[in-house]
Design goal:
The structure holds 2 protein chains of 2 kinds.
Chain A: H1 30-72, H2 75-78, H3 80-118, H4 122-125, H5 132-165, H6 168-175, H7 178-182, H8 188-212, H9 217-240, H10 244-249, H11 255-287
Helix pairs in contact in A: 1-3, 1-5, 3-5, 3-8, 3-9, 5-8, 8-9, 8-11
Chain B: E1 3-14, E2 17-28, E3 33-37, H1 44-52, E4 59-64, E5 67-68, H2 71-74, E6 77-80, H3 92-102, H4 108-117, H5 131-143, E7 149-153, H6 161-174, E8 180-184, H7 188-191, E9 197-202, E10 205-211, H8 212-219, H9 223-230
Parallel strand pairs in B: 3-8, 3-9, 6-7, 7-8
Antiparallel strand pairs in B: 1-2, 1-4, 4-5, 9-10
The chains are: A mainly alpha, B alpha/beta.
């Protein structure tokens, strides 16, 4: 019998019949509740997100088209470095658009988080039979997935623009971007894993800020932007290996040691920070809500 | 004897502000209509939110049908807040679907029948409805659950006097026969005849609790008159 099927059983805590085990005791079917929470998490932001995606894809297409056009211009009449600078400028413009969209998405999801737990929707949301952890998990999963798709599209856009622009290897050399070349290296899985961890961290950090500054919405919005921008910088530094501080450390330690230490420290920081942030949110929501 | 609600030494503090102080309360599971009465700031809404599972007590415990408050007890309680809480971007139908998805005891045909009676178009977006219609919709959704305990926080406060009787009759008609109903209100004279049991709450403490008829006979006053006496400004 399906979970969705409603059966009125002789119990004050009426639950679907599939929630009972063989002995007639209620068993936990928390996955069902989580699935429904995810559904109502996606539904209100889906249209906005779709619009942002369309803008992002349009930006990718136009950046690739302009990069391709520049490639076909006569480099001799334009000057080699002028052509390369134009390419880099258009890619930076694209990265700027992508970053802005990520910030907008971040504010949208933070606002929704606040409304659901500290605003008017809290009366309905918090009276549904779900645990605080399930509520938080649903919000965080949806935000991570949506932000991850956007981040992957931004990376893809940059790689495609370089590819269409031609002379990618020259640009990588010029800008000291060994990292995009790292796409071809074996460490790429680890890099992508770090991207996922980074997105998880940003999402959790944003929502933790909402809990911390729940009575000052302006503060969490501003900090949300700052965190997204800093993370983008860190992300590109990490992914592309042009982080200023790590370059400085290279003077003292070997490349391998620095790479190992920064990756280890970064990974532990991201995982630890995300877990701490999640528990902080749960603690606030369990004890500090004042609807 | 089974109790629908048991509060033991229930205390709630908001920072340094004591909202509820050592509330001890037991309500029998007998399908009674309970009036929770008190002036503004007396702790009515805090008590209701604690029972509904929206707030965590600072101290003490709450049991619903013998179970400690938690996910399971939320499924037995149907709660209507005093604040507007529906999702503006949803249609009436979508909001009904939300209730159906999360509350297994949601009785959709009952809700649809009420929507027809109150002439609410289920295809309309909630943000396009008038304030009064939104309140009626929230009430319909709350009462359409076949719950064991209904808690209504100021259900008729925002409704015009002409519609109050209809709403009150609807509340009584729609609730489960065996379900207990707790209603918090200031508008005592209009509703006191429906109460089987009353609770007076003052400064976070229950100062009077008993069967309505017994209190009327004992005090020789209506509940409204008694309320004015107990809570008059000294």
């Amino acid at each position: 019998m399906g979970v969705e099927e409603k059966v009125m059983v002789d119990s004050p805590f009426s639950v679907p019949v599939s929630d009972y085990d063989k002995n007639g005791n209620v068993k936990k079917v928390r996955g069902y509740v989580l699935k429904k929470l995810l559904k109502y998490e996606i539904k209100p932001i889906f249209t906005t997100y779709l619009i942002l995606l369309v803008i992002l894809v349009t930006a990718i297409i136009s950046t690739c088209s302009s990069a391709s056009l520049m490639k076909n211009l006569n480099p001799e009449s334009m000057g080699y470095y002028n052509a390369q600078l134009s390419l880099i400028f258009s890619i930076m413009l694209f990265a700027g658009i992508g970053g802005t969209l990520l910030c907008m998405m971040s504010i949208k999801t933070s606002n929704r988080f606040k409304k659901c737990f500290f605003g008017s929707h809290g009366y309905v949301m918090l009276s549904v039979p779900a645990t605080i952890e399930e509520h938080l998990l649903a919000k965080q999963i949806v935000s991570v997935v949506l932000n991850l798709i956007s981040t992957i599209l931004i990376i893809l856009g940059i790689v495609l623009a370089f590819t269409f622009g031609g002379g990618a290897n020259e640009v990588f050399k010029f800008a000291d971007f060994p990292a995009l070349c790292a796409l071809r290296k074996t460490s790429i899985i680890f890099k992508w894993l770090n991207v996922i961890l980074l997105v998880v961290f940003v999402v959790v950090a944003d929502n933790t800020l909402v809990c911390f500054f729940r009575n000052k919405s302006g503060v969490f919005k501003a900090l949300s932007i700052v965190i997204t921008v800093i993370t983008l910088e860190v992300f590109f530094g990490w992914f592309i290996n042009v982080n200023v501080s790590t370059n400085y450390i290279y003077d003292f330690l070997s490349n391998e040691t620095v790479n190992f230490l920064t990756t280890l420290f970064g990974t532990v920081f991201l995982i630890g920070g995300s877990i701490l942030g999640f528990f902080y949110q749960a603690r606030v929501l369990k004890n500090k809500i004042n609807l | 004897m089974e109790y629908i609600l048991e509060c033991e030494n229930l205390t709630k503090m908001y920072k340094d502000n004591l909202a509820l102080s050592n509330v001890n309360l037991k309500l029998e599971d007998n399908g009674a209509i309970v009036g929770l009465l008190g002036p503004n700031g007396s702790g009515k809404t805090t008590l209701i939110k604690l029972i509904a599972g929206l707030l965590t007590p600072t101290a003490g415990s709450i049991k619903i049908l013998g179970k400690e408050r938690g996910v399971e007890t939320k499924s037995a309680v149907s709660y209507l807040s005093d604040a507007y809480s529906l999702f503006n971007d949803f249609t009436v139908n979508e909001q009904m679907q939300f209730y159906e998805d999360f509350f297994y005891d949601f009785n959709k045909p009952k809700a649809e029948k009420m929507l027809i009676e109150l002439q609410i178009n289920p295809a309309l977006k909630i943000k396009t409805l008038s304030k009064g219609t939104k309140e009626k919709l929230a009430l319909i959704l709350t009462l359409s659950r076949d719950a064991k305990l209904y808690i209504l926080d100021e259900p008729i406060a925002g409704v015009d006097p002409a519609a109050r009787d209809y709403i009150l009759e609807t509340i009584i008609k729609m609730k489960n026969e065996n379900a207990t109903l707790i209603i918090s209100t200031h508008l005592i004279s209009e509703i006191e005849n429906y109460f089987d049991h009353i609770l007076f709450i003052k400064n976070g403490e229950i100062v009077l609790s008993g069967k309505t008829e017994e209190i009327r006979l004992e005090k020789g006053k209506s509940i409204d008159e008694l309320f004015r006496e107990v809570f008059r400004w000294a």
